Structure formats: structure tokens, C-alpha cells
UniProtKB/TrEMBL annotation:
Gene3D superfamilies: 3.40.190.290, Winged helix-like DNA-binding domain superfamily/Winged helix DNA-binding domain. Keywords: DNA-binding, Transcription, Transcription regulation. SUPFAM superfamilies: Periplasmic binding protein-like II, Winged helix' DNA-binding domain. It comes from the Bacteria. It comes from Pendulispora albinea. Residues 14-59 form the HTH lysR-type domain. The keyword Transcription applies. This is LysR family transcriptional regulator. InterPro entries: LysR-type_TF_proteobact-type, LysR_HTH_N, LysR_subst-bd, WH-like_DNA-bd_sf, WH_DNA-bd_sf. Belongs to the LysR transcriptional regulatory family.
């Protein structure tokens, strides 16, 4: 047990970046963390961390040892989860990573409901849009929106998110309502920023998809920021329904171009194949399915944009 405690103190220090930060995570003093790591180094007969007055960094021996420790701790977590699985009781630490937009707007407001239902599950949630290596980071479930690509993850389709074009009543009174996608050239549009440029708005027509380039007073890579700008009358937006539903219900925004639809985006729960039988994962994915209107597919399939 002493060796395992030393490993936990060491790996937490590496991940936290300092003894003080590790101590806060572990609920002990920084000196206790430092002493435990030093004791581990004496037992191994090598230096694991290179210490300066300003920072800590892994030595070559420390890096190799850290990688093995991560695998050891992961196996211990799997053993713990196996016990929970055997007892059919959802429990233990559940690591979830969600894309920003569905995470903030759909998942976070309903989390208290899930945690009340399963009090023995402890949730570690991260919100981000970048690529995530689920296996390397020990993520149990990812919530992602968009098309899938081949991968080793299992995907469960949760539903499809529609995209609405909206503007504030004040903006529409001043600038008028666009009647066709081509009318957007005469309007200020707030676009989602990707790789330095706003995404074009792609409309479905009988002849296929048409892409409309947009321009406006500003663009951003955060849906909530764009929604706030539209409410303030700065321009039109094209965002997922769950981002604008509340503002539409309050009359802060109004839909336009309703007869000119933009393609819906699929929403998936993704998980490593060694996680799908765990009760905590199963109940969480079932919970996610209730957040989206369209019923999930009955057969999970491999693939996934992570």
C-alpha cells in the first residue's frame, strides 16, 4: 500500500505540475507530497523529478516510470470497475469529455439530475472541442457532434442537432428579414470561427448543398458568444437548436429562412470498447440519450471523430 501511495503522489505531481498543486488535489500538505516522492526515489535508487526553484520536470528515468505508473493505476481502476460491474451497481469515477456546445447547453444543466439518481458515481467532466485520445487519458465517455471517421471507439447515435438561422427582433426590424440564402450578402452575420475564418453557411436545396460566405462585425469560436451578439442586435447567427432554444422561447431571437434548412449534425456518445459493459458507462450513455429528441440507434457501431 505504501508503494501504491507513492505512485499516486508521484503521478499526481507530474499531472498537476507542482507539489503544491498535487497537495491540493490529494488533500495533504505540499511537504507531505515532496517527502513521499523523495521516499519513492530512494526506494528506486533513481531521480524521478528534476527540481528547480521554479518548476519540476521529469528525468528520463522519471518519464519511463511515469508511463508505467499510469498503466498500473489504470489497471487498478479497471479492477475496481470490474467489481462494480459484477455487483450491477453503477459506481466509481466516471471520466467524461464533451464538446463545448452540447456540453454547456444540453449536458451541464441536467447533470444534477444524473448525480442525484446515481450518488455513488463521481463525475470528472472536461469541455473542449479538440482531439482527445480517450485511451491515453482514461476517458470513459465522449460526447461529440459532427460526422464520424474510422477509429477504435464505439459510437452510439443519440440524435441529430438542427441548425437555426436567427436574429433579434430589433435587428430584423432595422435590416429586414432575409427571404433566401443569397439575401445574406446584405446582412451582418456572426460566424463560427474555425482556423481563422468563419464557417460558410451551407443550405440544403433541391439541387444540393449551396455554401454562402458570410461577413459581419465579428466572429467567434464560442457559440454562446455568438448567441449573445445576436441577442444584442449585432447580426444573424446560424447555431444549433439547443444553443438558441431558450432565447427563442423568451422572444430574444426570431428564426428566419425557416424554409431553407441547413444540414443537421449527428450527435454521438463514444467510448472505448473495454468500457461499454461498465454499469457507470451504460447508465450515463442511457442518460445522454434522454437529452436528445431522436431515439438512439439500437446497434452501436465502430467509428468516431474524437
Amino acid at each position: 500500500m505504501s508503494a501504491l501511495a507513492g505512485i499516486e503522489f508521484f503521478t499526481t505531481t507530474v499531472e498537476a505540475g507542482s507539489f503544491a498543486s498535487a497537495a491540493r488535489r490529494l488533500g495533504v500538505t505540499a511537504s507531505a507530497v515532496s517527502r513521499r516522492v523523495a521516499q519513492l526515489e530512494r526506494e528506486l535508487g533513481v531521480s524521478l523529478l528534476a527540481r528547480t526553484t521554479r518548476s519540476l520536470s521529469l528525468t528520463n528515468d522519471g518519464r519511463a516510470f511515469y508511463e508505467r505508473c499510469v498503466r498500473i493505476l489504470e489497471e487498478l481502476r479497471e479492477a475496481h470497475d470490474a467489481i462494480a460491474r459484477a455487483s450491477k451497481k453503477p459506481s466509481g469515477l466516471l471520466r467524461v469529455d464533451a464538446a463545448l456546445s452540447p456540453g454547456r447547453n444540453m449536458l451541464v444543466p441536467r447533470l444534477p439530475e444524473f448525480l442525484d439518481r446515481y450518488p455513488e458515481i463521481k463525475l470528472a467532466l472536461t469541455l473542449r472541442d479538440q482531439f482527445v485520445d480517450a485511451a491515453a487519458e482514461g476517458i470513459d465517455v465522449l460526447l461529440r457532434i459532427g460526422p464520424l471517421t474510422d477509429s477504435s471507439l464505439i459510437a452510439r447515435h443519440l440524435g441529430d442537432a438542427r441548425v437555426y438561422v436567427c436574429g433579434s427582433p430589433a435587428y430584423l426590424k432595422k435590416r429586414g428579414r432575409p427571404k433566401t440564402p443569397l439575401d445574406l450578402a446584405k446582412h451582418d452575420c456572426l460566424g463560427y470561427l474555425r482556423e481563422g475564418r468563419p464557417d460558410a453557411w451551407r443550405f440544403q436545396t433541391e439541387g444540393g448543398i449551396i455554401a454562402v460566405d458570410i461577413a459581419g462585425p465579428y466572429h467567434a469560436n464560442d457559440a454562446a458568444t455568438l448567441c449573445d451578439g445576436a441577442i444584442a442586435g449585432k447580426g444573424l447567427i446560424a447555431l444549433f437548436e439547443y444553443t438558441v432554444d431558450e432565447a427563442l422561447a423568451k422572444g430574444q431571437l426570431v428564426r428566419v429562412l425557416e424554409e431553407h434548412t441547413l444540414p443537421s449534425w449527428p450527435v454521438h456518445a463514444l467510448y472505448p470498447k473495454n468500457r461499454h459493459l461498465l454499469p457507470k458507462v451504460r447508465v450515463f450513455i442511457d442518460f445522454l440519450a434522454t437529452l436528445f429528441r431522436k431515439a438512439p440507434r439500437t446497434e452501436p457501431r465502430r467509428a468516431a471523430r474524437r
